[in-house]
Structures are given as C-alpha cells and as structure tokens.
Amino acid sequence: MYLHEFQAKGLLREYGLPVPDGGVASTASDALRVAKELKGEKWVIKAQVHAGGRGKAGGVKIVQSFSDVYDEATHMLGMKLITHQTGEEGKIVHRILVEKATNIRQEIYLSIMVDRDNEQHILIASAEGGTEIETLAESRPDAIIKEKLSAIKAMGFYQGRKIAKKLGLKGNLLNKFSAVVVKLHQVFMDYDCMLLEINPLVVNSDNEIVCLDAKITVDDNALFRHSKIEEMKDYGEMEPQEVRASIYDLSYVSMEGNIGCMVNGAGLAMATMDIIKSFGGQPANFLDVGGGADENKVREAFRIILTDPNVKVIFVNIFGGIVRCDLIAKGVLKAANEVPSDKHVVLRLDGTNVAEGKKIINEEASASGLNIYAADTMADAAQLAVKLANEPAPDAPARKKGGNK
C-alpha cells in the first residue's frame, strides 16, 4: 500500500522527525488559507499522486506570493499529471500539499527497503540527492552507499554516524544525521514498510537536517496490524478492478495481455503467468482468489477479469488443498454462464476431490453448451489458452452446444 507524501510526513512528524511545515488542500481557497497560516515568503506546492517524477512533469512548483499560490493551485488541481511512472494515462491531481519553502544547502538521497535475498533491511544513501537513484546507480555506482540493517533490531547510532561520514558530513551534523536515520528505521520497522524513501534529505541554511520529501510503501499483508494505515488508503489512486477485488479479499493486478488468470495462491499465480509466457502468450492479470475460495469469490473473480475488454480467454488454474475442486468446479460453472460466447474458459484442476470436480465439468458443461475447455496438466492448459487467445474473433459469435473439449 502506497502512502501520499502528506500522509508519510504525518507519520514522520509523530516520531519527532524534521519535516517542513505544511498542509494539504483540495481547493485553491484551501491552498491559499494554508499558505497564509504558514506565513513566510516562499511556498512549495506539490501534487499528491502515487507516482514519482512529479517535478519534471509540473507537479512541484515554488511560488513567491499569495496570488501565485492561488493561481498555481487552480492550475494543478484537476490536471492530468503524466510522469515516467504513470504512463500516458497519467494521474488526476485531487489534492496538493502546500509547504513553507526550505533554504537548501545540501541534498542527500536516503532510502530503507527490504532486502529479500539476505532477509534483512538495507539502507541506501548518496551525497547526490534530488536525482533519480536508478540512473545514478547505473552511471556512477561508486556514488551509492549501502548499509545492512537488522530486520528485528533497531539501527545502531554508530551506523548512522558511519553513513554520515561516508556522505561527507562533519561536525554536529554527524549526530543530527544519525538521530534522523535511526528514527526513520524505527518507523520502517513499526509499520512493516517495504520502502521508506527520503529524496531529498537536506541540510538547510540553519545547518539542520530536514526530510524534504517522503515516500512510504507498507506491506499489504501487515495492514491487519495497522488500522491507522489502512484508513489512509486512497481508493481513488487504485484501479477500479483492484478496489472491487479488495472487497472480496482477492489479490488483483492488471496487466496488458489477453489471457485472464484466476489462480489460488501467489506462487501458483506466478508460475501460471510464466508458463503462459513460455508458450508465447500474454497474461492479462494476476488474480489470486486465495486458499479459501468459494463460489462467490470465483464468480466475482470472473466478473473482475471480464471488465478488461482485451481478455479473450480465462485460464482457471486451481490446486485444491483447503478448497475442494468440486466446489471450484460448481463455482466456475455458475460464473461461466456470464461469460460472453466469444470468450473461452480453460480449466485445470488438481488436488482434493479433483475427480469429482472434473466429472462436474465434463457432464454439466457439455449439457449447458458452455465454452469450457478442460485440461489435465498445467502445461496442456496453458498451451490451449494461448492457442485460443490467438484465434481470430468470429464475426457473429454464438453459444455452441457441447462446448467442453
């Protein structure tokens, strides 16, 4: 789950971390009110969308008068912000963050993330903050500093000082920097973060460390421990299918192919997409119905997949463990009644009650004339799904009797 910048800074502020004074606004009048309350001579207006690269796309502006605050807010609110992360569809700006401008003396890049390979956290820093770290890592890898952190113990103050020295900080900035990064790691651990990025972390004209920007990603699987974070979820930033899937506790991610995937288990879902690709096909989505899938979940999963107009085939790949194959088969039959006749369903079942499940499909699908194609192995099913997806669409599709192949 992604947090907006103003939400992330709110968390940091609770830990006593230095962030600029500011406030969020959804209208130009709100933005003007915030600027007047902040006083000062310059303000920064930032679009609040879940995407990086806002500055280059016109989503970050520095203004020097109240009239400019109002005018820039009017322009920014409602605009479609297109960055390298949003693609051409862009993101509509519904909220902006208005902050008092900071006099910057030095910019530093800082992030903490999960290092899955080594089962720990890792802190990444660079003295060249404010830049895209991916580009810098490719062109000048020597400019990147990495520090391994424990995933279960708080970061040591000495580690912060070591990083500060590598960044070229001196004097009392060594302790100030260390105090900030130790608290940032505490935030990271307390909220089960996947990523915490401050770009830039700055030294201001008063020789103080300030978190000028903040990006936080929280592990969705840990939200049951963090009701406060879950309440921050911005459904307006999510794809409609993802919102609908979350209601039924389904994991859905849209992709660009034409083979819809309905699978139980994230590992099996990844394997399913891989095998589709291996046969030359393109998955249209990642959809995990989970181990406790029932008829309602299966039916809703079909409906979500079919909201994508590019889908030509739905590949159902279920391994019955907790969930029984005969129950899945019944759910698929009910859901398949809503599938347009020019689309196909490829079904592969294995596991608990697989014989009963296949019997239900073989008997009832043929009798009802549904376009359900059963396969014994995952490879056979994937190959068939790719073949059907590559067939030209019929001019006048009609429901065929005895569609089970």
TrEMBL record:
Its cofactor is Mg(2+). InterPro entries: ATP-grasp, ATP-grasp_succ-CoA_synth-type, ATP_grasp_subdomain_1, Succ-CoA_synthase_bsu_CS, SUCC_ACL_C, Succ_CoA_ligase-like_bsu, Succinyl-CoA_synth-like. ATP binds at residues 46, 53-55, 99, 102, 107. One of its GO terms (molecular function) is ATP binding. Keywords: ATP-binding, Ligase, Magnesium, Metal-binding, Nucleotide-binding, Tricarboxylic acid cycle. Pathway: Carbohydrate metabolism; tricarboxylic acid cycle; succinate from succinyl-CoA (ligase route): step 1/1. Mg(2+) binds at residues 199, 213. Binds 1 Mg(2+) ion per subunit. It catalyses: GTP + succinate + CoA = succinyl-CoA + GDP + phosphate; succinate + ATP + CoA = succinyl-CoA + ADP + phosphate. Its EC number is 6.2.1.5. One of its GO terms (biological process) is tricarboxylic acid cycle. GO terms for cellular component: cytosol; succinate-CoA ligase complex. Residues 9-229 form the ATP-grasp domain. Succinyl-CoA synthetase functions in the citric acid cycle (TCA), coupling the hydrolysis of succinyl-CoA to the synthesis of either ATP or GTP and thus represents the only step of substrate-level phosphorylation in the TCA. The beta subunit provides nucleotide specificity of the enzyme and binds the substrate succinate, while the binding sites for coenzyme A and phosphate are found in the alpha subunit. Heterotetramer of two alpha and two beta subunits. Belongs to the succinate/malate CoA ligase beta subunit family. This is Succinate--CoA ligase [ADP-forming] subunit beta. It comes from Geovibrio thiophilus. The lineage of its organism: Bacteria, Pseudomonadati, Deferribacterota, Deferribacteres, Deferribacterales. The gene is sucC.
